[in-house]
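Exercise: predict the fold of this chain.
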Amino acid sequence: MSCAPAAVLDVLADGWSYAAWVVGTSRIRSVSPDWPVEGARIEHSVGLWPALLDDVTDVRTWDPEHGIDLVARGWPAGEAAISIRVKASGDGCLVRIDEDAVRGPGTLVPRPLRAAVLRARNTESLRRLAYIAERRTSSD
């Protein structure tokens, strides 16, 4: 991304921005006041109206210099573990998302198929995250 790691980490630390960059999230219902500390929660909805499902994403760990680990619940599909890591690279930064189903029916989908779907989704999520972080940087 064409911004400092801090710009990306600032977006990750803003729970209300989650729906703007996480593909599939349609709205945020609430964000824990202590987001993004361990145990904090975003209550969100996924899908398209009128077929919205209310679910949550919880913080497992937050490292304000390197990234965040989350557990996203998206029932009836199940739960996913997500790790987002940010590191400096030249004049910008590299951001990596690792995600996989950890509980529920999503784990029954063969791993190569899950990986292909998640890769496409997370590629777009990274594009959106970059746009927000880079734009915040340029407007400062």
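Check your answer against the key: The mean pLDDT is 94.
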